[in-house]
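Figure 2 data, in text form.
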Amino acid sequence: MIPLSVIACGGQEVKGPPPSHTVAIIAHRGASGIAPEHTIAAYDKAVELGADYLELDVQRSKDGVLVVIHDATLNRTAHGSSSNCTGLVATRPPAPLASCDVGVWFALGDLFLPRGEFIGLRIPTLEEVLARYRSTARFYIETKNPEMYPGIEADIVALLKKHGIAAGNAAMPGVFIESFSSTSLLAVHALDSTIPLVQLFDSQTPESISGKLDQVRSYATAIGINKTDVTTALIDASHTRCLQIHAYVVENTDEMLSLLAMGVDGIFTNRPDRLGIAIGQVNHGKVGESGCTAVAH
């Protein structure tokens, strides 16, 4: 991970990263290739496997409780009564949400049978996750559908402060907040400018992303981009502007090794176990001689 100190970059003082060879393992929805996404089982497994960050997609219930679930609707992963476990998360109070089973759908192997240990898993609240893992993990929080939840940025920042979670160690911050919405990120920045922010981009040409970097660097520390959009030229352009590159979502080991050799700073993965092994190979010189190329500022 690249420190977030204020350094001389491109001839002027900006907040951003000096060079580093350490790559962040970002457990996408937890270890979601091994256990049901956004459940305590997936987060526990991610911590066990050495992930640096737990990625959390945050929605808000009808009564204002922040919950961790990817979709704005319950239909894909929640099972239970239709009155409680279908429709928009925003229309359901916390108690009905707590009745939904978000583990029974998950199966591994060819038979696609529910795994007994996952049956009965519940939708966690953000506060529950922060409290459970504050001493064992770091957090990578996405404001999901922020236009649906006015003020959700303030709610998240308040919970981080309540649980004493801050950027902390610049070399490996205790928290990132990510979003596809620059408006949402700017709202976080106005509330607490010390929180490292990640501007997400949907899939587009590297040249298009590169053209937006000067604006992004004014508030963000990193960009999150589709793995297929990563190029050495975009990495260089980002590093020149003191922005990290975090690539999503990578499960294939060969793709991990390729991205590591190119010099990305973090990788979202459903399989943190595979990424940890790949990073070990790079660090031992099995892929390229230097791993992540140092950035000259």
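Caption note: Residues 1-8, 10-21, 287-297 have pLDDT under 50 and may be disordered.
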